[in-house]
Amino acid sequence: MKPLRKADLMAGDDSSGPEEARAAAHSQEGGSGAHDSAAALARSVLILANPASGGYRPRLLQDIAARLEARGCTVTIRLTRRAGEIGEICADPALRTGILAVAGGDGSVNEAIRGFQQNTAAAAPELAVIPCGTANVLAAELKLPRSAEGIARMMLQRRSVPLHYGLANGRPFVLMASAGFDAEVVHAVPLALKRRLGKLAYVLTALDIAFSRHGEDLFVRIGDEPENGDHAGRTLTCRLAVVTKARHYGGPFVICPDGGVTRPGLHLLALEKDTPLAALRFGLALLTGRLHKTKGVTLVPVNSLTLTSRRAVPAQIDGDPFGVTPLTLTDGNRPLALLVG
Length: 341
Fold this sequence. Notes:
Layout (H helix, E strand, L loop, with lengths): L5 H5 L7 H25 L1 E6 L8 H13 L3 E6 L5 H7 L7 E6 L1 H13 L7 E6 L5 H6 L5 H10 L2 E4 L2 E3 L2 E3 L2 E4 L1 H8 L2 H7 L1 H12 L7 E5 L12 E4 L1 E5 L3 E2 L3 E2 L11 E6 L4 H12 L9 E6 L1 E5 L5 E4 L2 E5 L2 E5 L4 E4 L2
Parallel strand pairs: 1-2, 1-3, 3-4
Antiparallel strand pairs: 5-20, 6-7, 6-19, 8-11, 8-17, 9-10, 9-16, 11-14, 12-13, 14-15, 16-19, 17-18
Helix pairs in contact: 3-7, 4-5, 8-10, 9-10
């Protein structure tokens, strides 16, 4: 119902008394106030950033805020003080903002989505990503802008896509979950080294543990659901299993040409061997975009699967440690609106 105008009141039935007129005026004011409130909410932007992260860029955030405020937006920059705070903010049913922008990497985005998953409010704000992390795979996946001008324009244009995520033991992952050698590296890389060297820290850690580790077999069982198609009920054994939503791995490297975070479904990438020689061969194939075509690699579309092992094997999601096997992995069913350029 549209709000009443003053002209509507003046042209009303002569039989309307003072009480009716006051009620109509109250309806007008309430409707106008609600409209103004909704418009103000739509123009509000909350930027969450971790000042302790290696990619923290305060001048970039201030530049984005200034550009948005010049176009009539209300911007709040909130610096987190502890791990998990982004998730707590996003899980709060009282959260009131039109856009929630996460300034960080893939792990920070994962934390935000975990919070939204727990939020009982009817609708979540639109999500924006300001790439400030180590790998920023999601930004590469969706070709998100990285300049202040481009990021501000993205928020003003409000063009969104559905962000479909997966679930690992019930916890969301935006890009991928894995168990095996790459997860061991994620568990082992020192945080200080990661902040100082970025991606190189993972390479050095991988070289450090490659010749001393003892890999374990992983047992994969794809679910029986019809959504798994011809692969329903299939089992296989491997040494590294990556369950991915995304096309890319570690930045610009393609591991799954048919992957995509804006549509439902998962893909399983399974590597039969994890010896140093096999790791070198697979690494070179990854650099050339041919990993999925390499002998000893299986790539299949899935909707659900389980990963088990005789002994606990480290796992990771979106580049952060995630305990050990066993894992139950499924596709999520509550996509979020993500702003894109």
